[in-house]
Amino acid sequence: MRDNLLLVGLLAAVTHFAACEGMDPVAPSDGGSEVGAAAAPVIVTTVAIGEWPGSNSGISGEAILTRTKDGLSVDQDVEGLISGHAYSVWWAIFDNPQGCVDACDPSDLGVRQAQGSLINGGGFVAAGTTQFYTSDLARHDVEGRQVWVGDLSGVDNTYGAEVHVVLRGHGPAVMDPADQAVQTSTFNGFCNPVCANVSVAPFSAPEAPGQGS
Predict the structure, then answer these.
(1) Calpha distance 166→59 (Å, rounded)
(2) What mean pLDDT do residues 50-68 have?
(3) What does the pLDDT look like over 106-159, one tens digit per residue?
């Protein structure tokens, strides 16, 4: 009992000393978490999917782009597809949109100041006239992807780049699985009979992290 009284008295004295010195009680450590560290922003923007100019594809829908410090991700709900046709997805990246000659467009992919690149983002065979798909593009990661034109290092300025997500039609899907994989992942893979861009979802660059376009 005496020992318990001594312990209570000692704790009271330490608490009183801390208060007198202007000290705050110290919380137990959580093993190294960075208390108060600012989380990297996540920027989410939504745009309408439109026909590729002059394509008369009839494609529409909605696209949602998520930007983080580590990369980009897009979710698209597409309407107006042709069932059984193969489609490839392409990231048109303009890392420095201020370097575009005017509004960023395919002609700027070859402009060095715009730091443009066209990178494959996978593809699919339409199971019907509507399709939902997701494509991810990690920062500086183009391993296993076709880079059709531009900077081979991939996207760098994930927050500040202008991003156009393009859907390219390849005609009826080929039957062989290996050929079909090529058809949906390369720019001119197994064009049946021709390949053509059919839609685009354009995302302008946010003004600053945390502010969507």
Answers:
(1) 12
(2) 98
(3) 999 978 899 999 999 999 999 999 999 999 999 999 999 999 988 778 899 999
Average pLDDT over residues 14-39: 42
Compute CA distances 69 → 84, 159, 163, whole Å: 36, 7, 15
Residue with tokens 């930007």: 67
Angstrom distance (rounded) from CA 198 to CA 51? 6
Contact 166, 89 (CB under 8 A): yes
3-state secondary structure of 177: helix
CA neighbor of 167 nearest in space, from 47, 51, 40: 51
> Residue 25: is the preceding peptide bond cis (ω within 30°)?
no
d(CA 204, CA 107): 16
DSSP helix/strand/coil, 18: helix
Say what the alpha-carbon torsion angle 152, 158, 160, 162 is, to the nearest 10 degrees: 60
Please state the φ and ψ torsions of residue 183, each to the nearest 5 degrees.
-60, -35
Is the entire prediction scored with pTM above 0.90?
Answer: no
Distance between CA atoms of residues 207 and 60, nearest Å: 27
Q: Which residues contact 178 (CB under 8 A, 6 or more apart)?
A: none
How far is it, in rounded angstroms, from Cα 80 to Cα 59?
4
